[in-house]
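Question (not urgent): is this output format expected?
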Amino acid sequence: MKSYFIVVDDDPSVAPLISKVTGVEVISFPETQKLLGGSKQYNPKALFLDVYLANNQLGTEFVSEIRTRWSYIPIIVMTSKPSDSILKAALQNGADDFIAKPINAEELRSRLSSRLELRNQLSSSNILEFGDLTLDHKRKLLCSSKKETFLTPQLCLAFENLMVNQGMVVSKDSFVNHIWSGKKVTNKAIEKKIYEMRQLLVEVESKVELNTVYGKGYQLIHRVSEAPKILIVDDNEVNCELVAAMLKKFDVKSEVASDGRQAVELVKEKGFEFVLMDCLMPVMDGFEATSKIKKHTGGSTKVFGMLGDKDDLTKQKCVDAGMDHLFEKPISLEDITQVVNICSPNSGVDKRIEAEFDCSIFKTLDHDYLKELTEVSDDNPAEFIYGLFELFTNTSKSAVDSLDHTAAHESTQRLAHKLRGMAENIGARSLAAACERLEDLAEEHNADELKAQIDILTSEYEVVMADINQVKLSKAS
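Got this back:
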């Protein structure tokens, strides 16, 4: 059983942030009623509760009830407006700690780590659990669901340090201090201890693995025997190609659906557990598709929303539909790393390459973004990027041409949205901005400025295509 935290906050950006900072999966709720109504099915390792929720609710009023449901987990309240009276009420009602917004990563890790350790001591002075692994500190006994083995005092402390933190990364300094009480030890001694711990996990046939996070520290993770297959749902072929390539970098296979209805059918047919879902698509949008998928699978399928529109209304629609995590387009390698960490914690996210590709040859494209794209392909970065350009060329022209012949504002808005996604995926920032402006005008039904903006967009498109074609000619010669 995977470890996870619960976040109660009507701001959908908070849960992904906590997940990213801690490296632990998060289940989010916009309000307390939805959580408390189904609390029996959840067993979180910690709970984060916002003080000021939607509909003028105070999160502090529900702390007592939450504490009765989960006696020994840390409850941490969050607020952007710290008040002595509110924080005092929260602590008196059973909260363990608070953290101020905007959330500071180091403060969050520090407070959470100390509270997890304290609550684990309260729940049982001798027993710690993580996945199928149990540590009996008093008897110095390490058990899985299959086998058990006795530990030396130092190895017992080592496992205790990692299991208390429930899958979070433990810094090297913290690990050393916990085992050797601040004494200076060599890297060789630390490596030997890590090796011994891994051998013991193999010996007891546990599904838990000890992972080294280079430059950061150590963590326990749940072993996945085979990387999952992820369904990518988007009518933008360039985005599908880019996301699929990023997933492939981590040896994660994917399949593509071009609209929501097709996605629902594929989930029913092939049982996908993870879906990367665009929001605005023809036939069936991502909101309706997510709701149907969640209903069919009983909520077990994880849906990662890909947002072209970054407004609060769209984010709320994603949350209401049941999306578990939200990412803004264009999707980055860092975003995909987080997706892979959630889907398959040990699928090789530390893999990196040094790619040689001269991004400065492009006059109209974002050089930093193109440089990031070179990290996506392990084989030939230049060939991969030129392949994206070819796909952009083949799919964007018909959309641009259609803008000259459409009078319907909805069609114009849809085409502009599609083009914006394509432009962002190749780093054409000026073209993407022109598309976004056209989207806004179409939504406002501003006929006077609409035609002029189409001309601006078309001009930007021609400049981008001239840049791409010029580089293609230089490459060919």
